[in-house]
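Cross-check.
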Amino acid sequence: MIYIEQPPFAPWLGFCEALFACDTVALLDDVPYTDGGYQNRNRIKTADAVRWLTVPVTRAPAQSIRDTPLAAGFDADRMLRTISLAYARTPHVDEALHVLQPALGAGHTWLVDLNVDLLTRIRAGLGAPARLQLTSELHIDEGDRTRRLAAICAATGNTVLWAGSGTRSYLDTAALARHGVRARWNDYADRHPVYAQAWPRQGFVPNLSVIDTVCSLGWAGTAGLLRTGLDTYLQQAPQEMST
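Predicted model, tokenized:
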């Protein structure tokens, strides 16, 4: 099974679950970079409110994600201090920073290199088995969305697509099936777990960066949370999906 998404920065739990659910997680780095997404930012919880943790980048017209450089103003130490201050009262903040710091402080020039480094370390911290695959390395030239997805699945030896619920409005599962690919909806947003989160007076906020969860539960605790939720879902969810 394969999950396909643009390479996110410090991803949410839904992405991290795919690292357990799938054999391959394909990172769409050869598509246009768009502002306002999760390729260079994600959300964390602070004493005041939820805020964006953003990596500044340099933009150019028609620029792909793989060709997006980090801006000269990126200050890794400042970002690490922001995380440390936001989660100073959590039991596992040092454990989280131990994994995050080497990637953030590595001096990467390109956004995709930073994200892949960070994702690789997050995967290792969680003990997740999925293989990370940049789609630019597959050299697939398919203009049609469905054919491109099918070609990525074929190139990585997968016939089942782990499909996010957000793709329901446009994913053509019938067309995918004609290319030999079945889709399984993961519907993670509808079953996001609740855990003991920082700054509890603000109430629980779902869909934050995995940084939030790891600071509260640790890497092993976060992995256990993801595995338990995935096992329960796979026992309950249908094996195949129709259009």
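Residues 155 and 220 are 32 Å apart (CA to CA). The longest strand covers residues 41-45. Passed to J.P. for a second look.
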